[in-house]
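Review box. Two proteins, two foldings.
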Amino acid sequence: MHHRLLSFLSDLEYAIVADDPQPGCDGTWGATRIVNYHLGLARLSLQVRPATGTAQPRGVVTVQSYALADGTPCLKATLGWTGQEGVRTLPVFTKPGLDWTSEARKIASTWLAGPPESATILEVGSTADSETEAPRLAAVS
């Protein structure tokens, strides 16, 4: 599997700390990393440790290593936030000249921006009369 799992998690953690050095009120970031090279999975659990009190979980970034049909190694990062149902998945495709640190910074900034907004359902109605009632369409944005 992919040998960049742990180094990618480290780059991701460093980017989060660099972009938000004091989360909350004078807190510090705490992180736990778990890597399983056999399965190609890694997990970064993030929490904030306030100056007084216990650590408060903030979210998780799970990274999966996989290979495309042509054998090119790739990563998939799934971002999750504590107390939120929404997750976001971002792929990182290996290509010539790829800067892994830059990709980790992009994912870190996406995670720091917070969870995606919940889907909004917009209904498009018909002005047809009741005898020939057209089906309603729904669009999700």
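Next protein.
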Amino acid sequence: MKAPTTLYLLMLTLVIALLPHAAHARRPMGTTMIGVVQKVDHTRREIVFAQEGGPVRNFVYTIWAKFWNDSPDSRPIALSSGMRIQVRLHRPLIGPDFVTQISLLQAARHRTVSSSATPRL
């Protein structure tokens, strides 16, 4: 009866010795998605996003989120509805879905009122 106990202790020692090497965590990279911003609430940092070929998603952007565009203002507060963007979406087990990187692909298209009258010179 002493041999199984010794074998058990030997296996337990081996598992404990190898555990720190097998349990190192890697930072998740997130999922890259492209779509159009439907609605933005900057007070709650919430974005409603229509994914191309997919569902409409709600998520938040983090305080440290990067917004890549061609203007000097690179904060997510420059986001507006109608912009075509690419995001890096993270889906944690606990808490809301969030993005850490937002890249502007196409600025929002604003509707212009066209006049049928001829312009004056």
